[in-house]
Amino acid sequence: MFTTPSGFNPHLACAEPGEEEEEEAPQESPGPAACLTDGPPFTSASLETLIQNLVPTADYYPEKAYVFTLLLSARLFIPPSELLSRVCELCIKQQQLDQSPLDTVKVRKFGPKILQLLTEWTETFPSDFRDEKMVGHLKDIIRRIAPCDEAYWKTLNQMLQKLNQRLALMSQGEESFFKVSLNASSISDKLVAFKTKPPPIQKDILSICNDPYTLAQQLTHVELEHLSHIGPEEFVQAFVQKDPLDGTQQPSFSEQKKTSNLEAYVRWFNRLCYLVATEICMPAKKKQRATVIEFFIDVARECFNIGNFNSLMAIISGMNMTPVSRLKKTWSKTKTAKYFILEHQMDPTGNFYNYRTALRGAAHRSQTANSNREKIVIPFFSLLIKDIYFLNEGCANRLPNGHVNFEKFMELARQVGEFMTWKQVECPFEEDRAILLYLHTAPIFSEDGLYLASYESESPENQVEKDRWKALRSNVLAKT
User: Which residues contact 379 (CB under 8 A, 6 or more apart)?
Assistant: First the structure.
């Protein structure tokens, strides 16, 4: 989605001999300032140069890809409030906004461009503006240009109104998911497998929804709802570490609560895995268990067709959990041909080659789609996080000469930007509140509970399983 940003600000002067650029560590290749006016892609630059090229002028505006890349990655080096402060300071200096009278003609050319930058910032990274300093910088720069055109105040008010609405929706969504997570956790802790399996103590999934396509649609609702709350900055903040040059520690996610949405999404994946395993291990008869397995196989197939790879992988992972996979008598009663096809699609061999091929196909379909139904692409999220993690670990943030490794952050922006495009798709399926409530709140077994239910469904086959079964039963009796 993002092309390589090559548009350095042509109005910035190259460093003169003897200036700071010359005093840095020996460079293996020409610095980015050497090609500002030529326009080829650059791979590194000093942080100050990168910030300078973010600042618009009367006749220059940075490429959109460049804006996204720098706003995303700069927070690894300085807080967003400091970045905006530096941008505003450069604007004031370049446009002489601290002098009176202002150059009205010049400011009127500059005004729409700085407003465009601020608009992109507030729309793409709205959580940055939970910091009052950010809003203060925004208002200050508009106050300085407003005397040249009163319409700037109106634009500012509209911008702030949309920003406040978005922040309010984000807060409501975060609180809602937090409550659901707590409720689901407290219910699951109360669900215990007893010495002799009792009659079902809960509704099962087939009593709530017996149509695989409908359940796949509702799972897609849950996935897209979670995705809608994840901001691009969460991917970067998850890997904040000490700056090797100055040794400063940036605020961690736990301190800023910036990864709460990302963590909630991971918890949802784990819950779905355990829900699938619970539904399979719960029935007392193997024919019923086989029916549930076949149902989830069909649900997984529908998720694949929709483009919901995260739910697909969660379902397959749930069926691959040892308490489920060991139920040989149950699996012998199951039609598994479709399951093996799906398992092949999500095979981790070759760094998930088959899945990545299918994902590219879904992404291509999304780009040429005429309907929201065809635009849906929900990636296997844990693998996306893993890809970003290894990108971060495998490439340094700074080069030996002190420059920011911008090539790394362009690749990061490409991956995150693609995800941001996918998460904006509006779910085309009608909500079923009963199914959604069940998915979020149905009790699930703990790992020990799954093993105990599995052993009670099909007796242990070896001494290790017999010892574990005995220990689990003893624990349950002790608790009751």
Answer: 309, 310, 359, 419, 422
